[in-house]
Design a protein that fits this description.
The complex is a heterodimer of chains A (165) and B (791). Chain A has 165 residues and is α+β, with helices and mostly antiparallel strands. Chain A has helices spanning 28-33, 91-98, 108-121, 127-133, 145-164, and strands at residues 7-13, 16-22, 54-57, 60-63, 76-78. In chain B, 26% of the residues lie in helices and 24% in strands. Classes of the chains: A alpha+beta (165), B alpha+beta (791). At the A-B interface, helix 2, helix 3 and helix 5 of A face helix 1 and helix 16 of B.
């Protein structure tokens, strides 16, 4: 693709190293959706408001529409497909399935990554804290109630598992 | 087959099976599904290919060039510089579109058509109207060329509000005048009944222009297939647009095919065509595959919205609260083109009396053209705007008479057999009363303030139709068959908005044939390869395709039953179809697998598949008299809420929210709750924050940053209750639930705000500025405009 000629960058996408030649004005989102082979990263608004394009860059959630591809050079990128290991869904994904936390599914990839990041740091967060945690990820289908139900179920499952260790 | 050549874009895209999971979940109708339907698994895995996650080597990038004036004559269009940009393969203007008209007789009642061009060639009627479209090898080239399309405009005087449009001597948006269509219905003698009333309650209400704001932009790809068929794979609610596209290209209907990808939300905004005509024209012109994705900003600017309504209600009541007369006038801003306005204002008008009995009633509803972005379908479709009118009226009546809101409603609830303003009786049972009681009971004790504000409680009821107007004589077809290994295949032209439309088909057929969802493949949304069901809109899809599936699955079971009973040595009436087996009821030892049944049937030339059509109950409506049959049935409900109003800022915080609807029979109760919660969230945004303001035809809210849909912080937990009270007309007695839960939010919250601060909001959205103004003046918020008879 002609749009990706230019600066050479190295990144890992879901643990897989890759190199791309990118123009300075190419967003990380566009790179991921095209040559990056990660169409699971979705474009929602392109202005950094809806959180649909959220990925983890070096472990932190970012709006990939607002980050240039060149800024990701040397970085580790995790998309929603990085959550599932060896063909098994992550327990957070299972919780979204069980609680119907996904309807049209378009906000789901970004939502899952934000939640994963937040609960890794705040494993005992309560429902109100979780409500704040996902405020940057818009959902137009669910009204968030079942999303929060799913997140709480996953949180409780993790806490139970850790108790057993 | 050409679809097999389409691939998720990008050379690295691994094409592999999505992760699966074995754990059971709640089944449809309580039993047949051990796993969630595949689309939901793929959605959480991130592997579901949406319309834009698809591509071809060498695909071109398409863009639409839009006018940025609201009302003008086009003097000239010069595309020569745009065509010279390196990599540009096509620059199309009005002259390049074979039949430059998006034409559909939308009303179903013979309302005269007003032609909407695919590309404007003579006049610009709204800000953002398409004037050209471009396909280029790169997006950079397409955008550069778009900037070089040189259009000379001569500004013309426009009409930007309903009042301007209806003023004497106003310039016309279209030659036929600014009154696009008016419906009148009347029963009894309204004037005489009004004379006899003890009280007349009169008010004007206003609702906003809002955007669907689904998260997936309008998008798709198109190509000319190997057999010469123009094929689009797009995010759409209606694959039947293939015919309109064929007419635009002046091709036979059989030469244009539309495939609907699973949508990232639609809510009515993908019911009219979006990218389709531009994609189709560019594909046909270049004979190359083309991709088109609209930017969020152009989606907000120029794709159709919900109609703003101004509603004047005059209600005559007796001292005891009994409604004796209703006189209702509605004006809806249709924007610059008709689209589905004729149907929306019809729905608004005939549903404007709500779930309340009145034998002397009159309604008039009018769609008005203005030089603003067109309005069309949006969840609730006219029947939701009027809920704000009729429910606010009930509160005003209660207030005037010193009764409670419950008492006034109790006196007036409709029941089966009551006559509507259209002269037709209500055919099915009505559960509004039970929903009201349940919602209020569920709310419990009045909430305590959380931050020193005033707390209030309110509720609102609704009765909204599901299914298309009966004069459309609606139809849906479906195909179901068993493979030799006993797995089930379903084919139906359903489009899936994300609400589980495909999953429902698997659930319904599975309930009848006993095949589990994990052993079922559902093929949907292909105008050439799946039997047509009609689009997913009007809360019709479960009703229509659900009934079609129930019909074909039952036919197939009846066809296979003799083979099964012969294999099992039992009577057909003893057969039990469950868990991928056909057995003898009560005798676990005797059963055959679906695979064995399927193979045996085929060997005996009993082909294990069926295709048939469900036809909805048809009716007739006379637009001259306003009398006749309108909708097949209704879904009833009640929402109740506690709010806290900050008296210093005017902010409204919802403390508790309960939404109750009678769903007849839930196909999947969890998904029903999801629909209720999602609609309530959208209705709460409509009530409190969403509004697309225009000034001189220019829209101010063209960013998500200033068009405020609810975030997780703006909503409380939404308690959704799907009651199974009275059976409806859907499969197994289901009632539609996609749209109805969006109606009661606005009036329920207005009622709660009134309870908290003693003033009533007559306009939506109830933004802090308006609430604060009402608090400070101590007067009800009012609607600007002529008022009284002029609405």
């Amino acid at each position: 693709m002609t749009a990706t000629r230019g600066h050479l960058i190295s990144v890992t996408i879901n643990g897989r190293p890759a190199e791309f030649a990118v123009t300075p004005n190419l967003s990380l989102l566009e790179l991921l959706r095209t040559d990056g082979g990660s169409p699971e990263v979705k474009l929602g608004c392109g202005e950094g408001v809806c959180g649909t394009c959220t990925v983890l860059l070096n472990g932190e959630p970012i709006n990939s529409c607002l980050v240039w591809a060149v800024q990701a050079d040397g970085g580790e990128i995790t998309t929603v497909r990085g959550l599932a290991a060896d063909g098994e869904l992550h327990e957070l994904q299972n919780a979204f399935l069980d609680h119907a936390g996904s309807q049209c599914g378009f906000c789901t990839p970004g939502m899952l990554l934000t939640v994963k990041w937040y609960l890794d740091r705040h494993p005992t967060a309560d429902r109100e804290e979780l409500r704040h945690a996902i405020a940057g990820n818009l959902c137009r289908c669910t009204g968030y109630t079942k999303i929060l139900d799913a997140i709480e179920a996953y949180r409780d499952l993790r806490l139970t598992e850790n108790d057993g260790d | 087959m050409a679809t097999d050549t389409g691939r998720i874009q990008g050379r690295d895209a691994p094409v592999k099976e999505p992760p699966t999971r074995p754990a059971p979940t709640r089944g449809p109708l309580g039993r047949t599904s051990p796993v969630p339907h595949r689309d939901f698994v793929e959605k959480v895995a991130g592997t579901l290919p949406y319309a834009d996650d698809w591509g071809f080597p060498g695909i071109l990038h398409g863009v639409v060039v839009r006018a940025r004036v609201p009302c003008a004559r086009i003097v000239s269009i010069d595309v020569s510089a745009a065509r010279e940009v390196q990599g540009v393969r096509a620059v199309l203007t009005a002259a390049d579109i074979p039949h430059n008209a998006i034409s559909e007789e939308a009303s179903g009642l013979g309302i005269e058509q007003t032609v909407q061009p695919v590309l404007a060639g003579e006049r610009i009627r709204y800000d953002g109207e398409p004037v050209a479209c471009i396909a280029a090898e790169t997006m950079v080239a397409a955008v550069e060329a778009a900037g070089l399309v040189d259009v000379e405009y001569e500004d013309e005087e426009g009409v930007f509000t309903i009042d301007e449009a209806l003023a004497e001597g106003a310039p016309n948006v279209h030659p036929g005048g600014n009154n696009y269509v008016t419906y009148n219905s009347e029963i009894g003698d309204v004037d005489a009944a009004m004379e006899r009333a003890d009280h007349i309650i009169e008010a004007t209400y206003q609702t906003p222009r809002v955007d669907h704001a689904y998260l997936e932009p309008e998008s798709g790809v198109g190509w000319v297939d190997s057999d010469g068929v123009v094929t689009l794979r797009v995010s759409t609610q209606v694959i039947e647009h293939a015919r309109a596209l064929a007419e635009i290209l002046e091709l036979p209907h059989s030469r244009v095919r539309v495939i609907a990808a699973y949508m990232g939300g639609g809510f009515g905004g993908k019911e009219d065509m979006t990218v389709e005509p531009y994609l189709a024209a560019l594909v046909w012109k270049t004979r190359r595959p083309v991709r088109m994705v609209w930017e969020r900003q152009e989606s907000l600017l120029a794709r159709q919205k919900r109609h703003p309504f101004r509603m004047h209600y005059r209600t005559g009541v007796r001292d005891d609260g009994t409604i004796v007369a209703q006189d209702i006038k509605i004006l809806g801003d249709a924007g610059a083109y008709p689209l589905l306005s004729s149907r929306v204002l019809f729905a608004g008008g005939v549903n404007s009396t709500g779930p309340y009995r009145c034998l002397d009633a009159r309604m008039q509803s009018t769609a008005v053209f203005t030089n603003t972005v067109p309005a069309s379908a949006f969840r609730g479709f006219g029947a939701m705007q009027v809920v704000f009118g009729y429910e606010s009226q009930m509160d005003l009546i209660a207030e005037r008479l010193g009764l409670t809101g419950e008492q006034v409603r109790e006196r007036n609830f409709v029941a089966r057999g009551d006559i509507r303003v259209t002269g037709e009786p209500i055919e099915m049972e009505c559960g509004t009363r039970e929903c009201m009681h349940r919602a209020l009971e569920e709310l419990g004790e009045l909430s305590q303030p959380t931050s020193g504000g005033k707390v209030g409680r309110g509720f609102a009821c609704s009765m909204q139709p599901y299914g298309r107007s009966m004069f459309f004589a609606d139809r849906a077809s479906a195909w179901v068959g068993l493979e030799q290994d006993g797995t089930m295949v379903i084919r139906a032209g359903v489009t899936d908005l994300g609400a589980g439309q495909a999953a429902s088909l698997a659930n319904i057929a599975g309930e009848i044939l006993g095949v589990t969802v994990d052993r079922t493949s559902v093929h949907i949304g292909d105008s050439h390869l799946t039997p047509l069901t009609g689009g997913t809109f009007a809360t019709r899809q479960l009703y229509m395709s659900g009934n079609a599936l129930q019909k074909v699955a039952t036919l197939l079971r009846d066809k296979l039953a003799p083979v099964a009973s012969d294999l099992l040595g039992c009577d057909a009436s003893e057969l039990e179809w469950a868990n991928n087996l056909v057995g003898v009821a009560g005798d676990r030892a005797r059963s055959v697998t679906m695979a064995e049944l399927s193979r045996t049937a085929e060997a005996r030339e009993v082909m294990p598949y069926c295709h048939d059509t469900f036809t909805a109950q048809a009716g007739e409506f006379d637009p001259e008299t306003g009398q006749g049959q309108t909708y097949p049935d209704y879904t009833h409900g009640c929402h109740a809420a506690d709010v806290e109003v900050n008296e210093r800022t005017g902010e409204v915080k919802i403390l508790k929210y309960v939404a109750v609807h009678d769903v007849g029979r839930a196909i999947d109760l969890q998904r029903v709750e999801g629909q209720i919660q999602g609609a309530a969230a959208q209705g709460i945004g409509y009530a409190l924050s969403e509004e697309m303001e225009t000034e001189g035809g220019v829209l101010h809210s063209t960013l998500f940053a200033n068009y405020l849909i609810p975030t997780s912080l703006d909503l409380p937990d939404l308690r959704a209750i799907g009651l199974e009270l009275y059976l409806g007309k859907g499969p197994f007695g289901a009632r539609g639930i996609g749209e109805p839960p969006i109606g009661p939010c606005g009036p329920a919250l207005a009622s709660a705000i009134h309870d908290a601060i003693g003033v009533r909001m007559l306009r939506l959205p109830m933004i802090p500025e308006r609430v604060l103004a009402a608090i400070r003046t101590g007067r009800d918020d009012s609607v600007p405009g002529p008022g009284k008879e002029g609405v």
